[in-house]
From TrEMBL:
One Pfam family hit: Tautomerase
EC number: 5.3.2.-
Protein name per the record: Tautomerase
Superkingdom of this protein's organism: Bacteria
Protein family membership: Belongs to the 4-oxalocrotonate tautomerase family.
Species of the source: Amycolatopsis decaplanina DSM 44594
Enzyme class, first EC level, given as a word: isomerase
Signal peptide stretch: none
Amino acid sequence: MPMISVSMFLGRTAEQKQALVREVTDAFVRTCGGNPEGVWVTINEIPAEHWASGGTLFSER
């Protein structure tokens, strides 16, 4: 069973997250085959002050 992990900033609605996991699952099944029930998706919501790029926190941008 595949496990797909998505990391993103806080702030999406439950409806947006549901649409995301549906689309990610569908994309996996379409491209790699398998059964949707066997695809696991986790969402890791990260505050902007815990994420950085180029030495700068996103909360400082």
